Amino acid sequence: MSKDKMPTAVVSWSSGKDCAFALHQVRMQRQVEVVGLLTTLNQENDRVAMHGVRKELLLRQMDALGLPAEMVLLPMPCDDATYRQRIGDTMASLRESGVKQVIFGDLFLEDIRQYRKEQMQGSGLVPVFPLWQRDTEQLARTMIENGLQAIVTCVDQRVLSLEYVGRQYNYDFLNDLPPGIDPCGENGEFHTLVTAGPMFSRPIEVQVGEKVIRGDFAFVDVFPAGD
Q1: Among 179, 189, 181, 184, which Cα is nearest to 156's?
Q2: Rounded to two decimals, what is the model's pTM?
Q3: How far apart are CA 23 and CA 79, in angstroms?
Q4: What is the rounded distance in angstroms from the CA atom of residue 161 to the CA atom of residue 18?
Q5: Pairing relation of β-strands 101-103 and 126-128?
Q6: Distance CA 7, CA 138 (A)
């Protein structure tokens, strides 16, 4: 890579709002060239881990972002050793292709941040956290003000009732959250699927299906519109 070029990066991609807005932030800052996404899928059902998002929607996000993705297939359940090995192999491949940084959408959980740093030690890649320690109440509203649209695909029923899953992530959703729930869901209270925003070239049309309970979590199945 010549010295006059920006360093290249991939975004750790969950399909949700925080990684999407982290991508938007680094693109706006113009200090790094984002060349792709890094995402994990449950190999049994081809869905984005934890968010429960179908691979078909991930592919539509990639198209609207104009970015390819390295998809790491994980068993379910997945032990830490397997996770580290498969992610490590993928990071080694990215480094060999010239990637220098991995962008994360983490907000304030220090243990998660440290885990990512430890995971990347010796990889030759630098972890970057463009949203780190932003006030999450302000950040949530900034996302919405900037045109980000998302559907809440998963909630932890230990802290949020079933009625929250399947809703649009908007001002009404934020205003309805019970006390103590982080507006960005950083503590795992909920997860989202981004369908529109300044990081996309066009919106992704979707339709919302049935709700499913799996243990402590409630999911809603989201389909590409017309399927």
Answers
A1: 189
A2: 0.93
A3: 28
A4: 22
A5: parallel
A6: 30
DSSP string, 192-216: EEEEESTTSSSPPPEEEEEEEEETT
Average pLDDT along the chain, 227 residues, taken 10 residues at a time: 73 97 96 95 85 91 96 89 91 94 97 93 94 98 98 97 97 98 98 98 96 95 85
Output the CA–CA distances (angstroms, integers) from residue 127 to 115, 184, 203, in the order listed: 11, 21, 29
Domains along the chain? 8-224 (3.40.50.620)
Whole-number Cα distances in Å, 178 to 51, 113, 116:
21, 26, 30
Copy the structure tokens of residue 26.
């680094």
Query: Token match 């970015």: residue?
Result: 67
| pLDDT score at 78 | 86
